[in-house]
Amino acid sequence: MPPALPNLQIGSVSIGFPVVQAALSGYSDTAMRQIARRLGASYALCEVVLDRVILQAKRKNRLRFLRVADDDHPVGGQLMGSDPLEFGPAAAKLAAAGYDVIDINFGCPVKKVLGRCRGGFLLSQPETALDIVSRVRECVPPEKPVTVKMRRGLDDSQESRDKFFTIFDGAFARGVDAITVHGRTVQQRYVGPSRWEFLREVKQHAGSRVVLGSGDLFTAGDCLAMMHETGVDGVTAARGAIGNPWIFSQALALARGEPLPPPPSVFEQREVIREHYRLAETIYGPNTCGRQMRKFGIKYAQLHPNSLAVRDAFIRVSTTAEWPLVLEQFYAEDLPGCYPPLEHLAAETECSA
């Protein structure tokens, strides 16, 4: 029997089981979060959104970021930007929309984000980063937690390391309730291993302050191993949860000392895919939902015993009418499912800080 994992608490918000869904740009919308919750995720974060998009949210496609479903709690809203003056009002708007936690992104390594002085770029600017933290904390109601997402630094230089800990300690001093740390540098993006030993060092430095870990969590076993090896208070599953929301229930089973559950059968996959599509259609409408869901279909295909053919079929989907045809062709027989191949999961994906 593995040692029991304590429930995760972020400020005033009780999370529960400490394996949660990360913010995933272009993925973790309301539909993905609801599916993850039904399969064991105790907490999820909205896809990262620019502060100015929230402040200018008038068009229908932007308003989706302000939609929080009744069964989507507790939920975090993640903000990214460059201007400290815009962060506070945007954070207040997310809090008013119903987000239980407001998260600040100081970790995104995507080139165009860095070029606009956002995301991981701010790890090189401790004064600006901490100004943002202060402004968000001041504008968010005191009962709602504020959290930060970071990488271990811009690069592996001593200067970058010093700036990491300046921001890390300064954010907690300014009222942040938890910090998620990804074990790669911004310069690494998604190449090379995530350094779990750095997470262990950070948690030892943090003491009783809440630290979540991120990076190379592709299986349920990875999630538990990170917590046991590093001592972090929780972990955020990112790429490993796209198309595999079962990772949460599998991690919960392992934490209880039970055997790893078998991968979902083809019929189990089919029902979840159909429900995911139905939920997404309420967000994007019938005319565009098929295109939006194609990237999820490609990821779900990894669990199918005929994964390459299913993936190619989803890739070819261009209209809403073509979507159910893939299910009719490949999900009509209830075959045993497969665990996702690790070489596909570890491939670079620009979707999470």
In CATH, the architecture of the largest domain is Alpha-Beta Barrel
* Percent of residues in β-strands: 5-15%
Main CATH class of the largest domain: Alpha Beta
Helix content: 40-55%
Q: Classify the fold: give the CATH topology of the largest domain.
A: TIM Barrel
Find the count of extended strands (DSSP E, 2+ residues).
11
Q: Would you identify the CATH H-level superfamily of the largest domain?
A: Aldolase class I
C-alpha-based Rg, rounded: 20 Å
Rounded mean pLDDT is 91
* Parts with pLDDT < 50 across at least 5 consecutive residues: 347-351
> Count the helices. How many?
15
Amino-to-carboxy terminus distance: 33 Å
List SSEs in N-to-C order. Answer: EEEHEEHHEHEHHEHEHEHEHHHHHH
Largest sheet: 9 strands, parallel
Q: How many domain modules?
A: 2
Structural class call reads alpha/beta
The best one-word shape is globular
Describe the fold and architecture.
The chain folds into two domains: 8-255, Aldolase class I (TIM Barrel, Alpha-Beta Barrel), CATH 3.20.20.70; 266-330. Helix content is 43%, strand content 13%. The chain contains 15 helices and eleven strands. Strands 3, 4, 5, 6, 7, 8, 9, 10 and 11 form a nine-stranded parallel beta sheet that branches. The protein has a two-stranded antiparallel ribbon with strand order 1-2. The longest helix is centred in the C-terminal third of the chain and has 19 residues, at 266-284. The protein is globular, with a radius of gyration of 20 Å.
